[in-house]
Design brief:
CATH class: Alpha Beta
Largest sheet: 7 strands, mixed
Radius of gyration: 16 Å
Low-confidence stretches: 1-40, 44-49
Shape: globular
Strand content: 35-45%
Number of domains: 1
Structural class: alpha+beta
CATH architecture: Roll
CATH topology: Nuclear Transport Factor 2, Chain: A
Number of strands: 9
Helix content: 10-25%
Order of helices and strands: EEHHEEHEEEEE
């Protein structure tokens, strides 16, 4: 079935199947909360850029959860705390966006979609270390909101490049595609 979905302020036509979604993937992360404006995105799970594969996966999953807790709360400043000021955001239909354009896009999406939410598609997360830099995160996520009184959802693919620097993890590159 065809649906229109809003992502980064742009309307997209997507094909949706009738698959049932499993319970969202979550990990226990005592003491972790979404970053607030001006706060670093420090992860208590590690103090080094490279950890064992399972530890790195858990770390990135926690960062993803915290980032999108801020998204789902529609807290633009907390959300943007996860992105490096030199961010390059590549969107397949929107082009290349910088930090300020991404912030404006999220602001517009939240203003026009009061109930928009994001969930990570269970089982889609892949994490790979980047030597002396951080990690690559690949996955699929689903965005839903109400349009004309009906639920409207779209599932899209993404790649995030996380950079570790002095205890902070920030996304320096984002690729969003499949819209």
């Amino acid at each position: 079935m065809k649906h229109e979905a809003m992502y980064m302020g742009q309307r997209r036509r997507t094909t949706m199947g009738k698959a049932a979604w499993a319970v969202a993937v979550a990990i226990s992360s005592a003491g972790c909360s979404p970053a607030t404006a001006g706060e670093s995105v420090h992860s208590p799970a590690t103090t080094a850029a490279t950890v064992d594969p399972a530890g790195l996966r858990a770390l990135v999953l926690d960062l993803d959860r915290r980032m999108f807790d801020a998204y789902n709360a529609h807290d633009v400043n907390a959300l943007m705390a996860f992105f490096d000021p030199g961010l390059e955001f590549f969107h397949d239909t929107g082009g290349l966006l910088d930090f300020d354009q991404v912030k404006a896009g999220f602001t517009n999406v939240f203003a026009s979609n009061k109930d928009i939410r994001r969930e990570l598609v269970p089982g889609s997360l892949e994490v790979y270390p980047i030597k002396d830099y951080g990690a690559i995160q690949l996955g699929e996520h689903r965005f839903c909101h109400t349009e004309n009184g009906q639920p409207d959802c779209g599932t899209f693919k993404f790649v995030q490049i996380w950079h570790y620097n002095n205890g902070d993890w920030k996304v320096t590159r984002e690729v969003s595609y499949g819209h």
